[in-house]
Design a protein that fits this description.
17 helices; D-Maltodextrin-Binding Protein, domain 2; alpha/beta
Length: 342
């Protein structure tokens, strides 16, 4: 009798313990602006490494076509946090919508303006994009912002160029190879995939390295970060700290492991069939990932300067850029766990 009772009790206790664990975990939904893009790898890898679980979070990642779609999900209430580009926080501040990033995982944006292989002969500079069709992940996304900035920087009226949403990943590569568009703002691994098939691929602007980013923006320009509405951040400090800890631990793991080890942890569907090209793209991207998780105030100022130049609305808004980010949670993680670097 005791044996039968014991057999019945053990599974019951396990169920109770599991339900208690689930109840102890805070649920957070993160909208990702294109999970296959290497610029967002730290968020996906944090899930793969179990860092969200370790931090006491039950995280659902919702994969969307671009940063603007991820932003809409948070503003519409279907997601809590965006894993996307920090520049949205600055852009929305001009519309009196308060967003705040709390951990930065990309030191550089990694945006690349590439000419379609079918149009290499006719497009040799940014100026040649006047009147052309240029692909972006989604209208209103960071790829779109970058395109408009580059056009204006080169003396062109952005309204004279047709902007077409082509997503990220395979759809963007297909649109380029088929010549459906004349050029596109792309991100890795898509750029490296195209280069693998077209050795003479023409790149008009590249922000995957510090040198190239400084050449384009005259300063460092933060890319991917976790951010949400300021109201959500202020009312969910426990969850924000846990998310920050998870991303910092993931960044530390990335910089202490080989690209091959990082790739091995990623979902097979994200890596795709051509592992060699994915690995090559990953090797190009790893220097882009932050080692500290901190927002560089000069980088935030650079984002504001870029938007002020390309958007009259931002220029007139007198934005206090210091309100669009906080390093509070990264600093706290460093004090309690030593997770952030210097």
């Amino acid at each position: 009798m005791k044996t039968i009772f014991g057999r019945l009790l053990a599974p019951l206790l396990a169920i109770l313990l599991m339900s208690d664990f689930a109840a102890a975990q805070s649920k957070v939904t993160i909208a990702v602006g294109g999970g296959a893009c290497l610029c967002y790898l730290p968020t996906v890898l944090a899930r793969q490494l179990g860092e969200f679980d370790k931090a006491g979070l039950s995280v659902e990642l919702v994969d969307l076509k671009g940063g603007s779609d991820a932003l809409k999900a948070v503003l519409g209430g279907s997601a809590d946090v965006v894993s996307g580009y920090f520049d949205h926080c600055v852009n929305l501040a001009a519309k009196k919508q308060e967003l705040q990033s709390f951990v930065v995982y990309d030191r550089y944006p990694g945006l690349v303006l590439v000419v379609s292989p079918k149009h290499t002969d006719e497009i040799k500079s940014v100026k040649d994009l006047a009147g052309k069709k240029v692909g972006v992940s989604a209208p209103g996304s960071s790829t779109d912002f970058f395109l408009k900035y580059m056009l204006k920087k080169n003396g062109l009226d952005p309204s004279g160029t047709s902007v077409i949403g082509i997503g990220l990943g395979a759809t963007a590569v297909a649109a380029m190879e088929q010549g459906q568009i004349d050029a596109a703002v792309m991100l890795d691994p898509s750029v490296t995939v195209l280069q693998g098939s077209h050795a003479d691929l023409r790149i008009l602007s590249d922000t995957r390295t510090q040198k190239d980013t400084l050449a384009v923006f005259s300063g460092e320009y933060p890319g991917g970060a976790l951010y949400s509405t300021t109201a959500w951040v202020n009312s969910h400090e426990k969850e924000v700290q846990a998310l920050t800890n998870a991303i910092l631990n993931t960044l530390k793991w990335i910089h202490s492991h080989s690209p091959e080890e990082v790739m091995a942890k990623m979902p097979p569907e994200t890596v795709g069939k051509n592992k060699e090209l994915y690995l090559a793209a990953l090797k190009n991207t790893i220097p882009m990932y932050s080692e500290t998780g901190k927002m560089d105030p000069k980088g935030a100022d650079a984002v504001l300067a870029v938007f002020s130049e390309s958007s009259p609305e931002v220029a007139k808004a007198n934005i206090d850029v210091t309100k669009t980010y906080t390093n509070k949670y990264v600093d706290q993680a460093g004090r309690t766990t030593g997770t952030n670097a210097k």
